[in-house]
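Long-time lurker. I teach an intro course on protein structure, and each term I like to show students one example going from raw sequence to a predicted 3D structure in token notation. This year I'd like something fresh instead of my usual example. Would anyone be willing to generate the tokens for the chain below so I can use it in lecture? Attribution to the forum is fine with me.
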Amino acid sequence: MRVHYHTFGCKANQYDTERMRQESEARGSTTAGGAVDADVLVVNTCTVTNQADAQARRFIRRAVREQPDLRVVVAGCSAALREADYQAMDGVVDVVTGHDPMLVAGAIGRQQGGGLTQIQLRTSLDRIDHEPVGGELLRTRRGAARGWLKVQDGCDRKCSFCATRLARGESRSRALSEVVAEARLLAERHVELVITGIHIGHYGIDLDPKLSLSQLCAVLLEKVPDVRFRIGSVEATEIDDLLIELMVTSGGRLAPHLHMPLQSGADPVLRLMRRWHTREQYRTRTLEIAEHVSPLGLGADVITGFPGETEEDHATTRALIEELPFTYLHVFPFSPRNDTVAQTLPSPVPQRIAADRARELRMLAQDRGDGYRARRSGSMATVVVEGDGGTGLTEDYLRVRVGSGHPGNTVERSSMLTGTLHGDPDDLYIVAPHDPALYSP
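-- Reply from a regular --
Happy to contribute to a lecture. Here you go:
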């Protein structure tokens, strides 16, 4: 059985797809490079916006139209909320309402009449009223220099615009021993591991004894040597002093990079969003982090045109972005999501205005990012070599050129390279001390 996997959405979804792939291969399937070479197409969906749902449906329709005999298995967040919609689609033979890799593998196996080999799982979490987070440990992220290490799933917060928590369920953490064991396996194939989940700032609060994200990072740094860890998206108010200390003292092993969702810099909008921090709380913590951690890659998510957002609110958000040392932003105009509180809020902002505000903030973010890249030229960096060895990712989340682009002037992928950054914002590249000619223009 040849299976192709297509993933929409976040790093957690990408991790889940790798679990699905590994589980299916263990039961006898093979992975196809594209849908055209596959018997079964597994689509792992996202539901962060209505457009994400629509994008997945368009992808499925196109795949089936181009390959009428293709059998489609749909899984993921959108499938959890829109099961009937997907079941009604031509070509869809099974819908898994969530991300359980064993259920996906079973759905694939049914397409071969149960002919796939069943295996005995070595470790599996108890099944209760939601899918397991753990199960068989992930060993690799196929075709990637960096691995994803999922430590938590679900969310207990109730942001008014978010449907992901409806699809993912309550927050639940993986056991510390399981996370460490999986990190060791992944470290055999990846030189950097990204700690990911849906709300990783709540890691460990449901464990006995309780743990924190910073304590988890401290254990990983101790127990899993010779690999760099990077923290995925985390709330500014959930970054404690220990986490900052680890970034400062770990010699780069805990990457000095934080992605801290902002969503808005105006308190009236934050209250409508049902966010749990104020503008000043976010501002104060960010400046405290920047005071201690340097260099610092700093990113955030921002939503423009949220219902009730005024021009004054937008200006207040812009002012905060101008003050804080962001190196990049992910900016999106508000898009109403079915089944969320935000969909019912009064005072909608016209899409044209929301788009204009988003464009303005993206231009600001581009300028800030270019300025940061220019300042980093001439300083040292350690990059994870990606792809064919032509690019690398620095500890502070800058993608730079590795190699001159001439035939043979490449570095082995999935390796680490330390050197000096040179160039300008449009062409930042790394020069290795042992062979400067290899990496200069």
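Some talking points for your students: Residues 351-376 form the longest helix (26 residues). The two ends are 46 Å apart (CA to CA).
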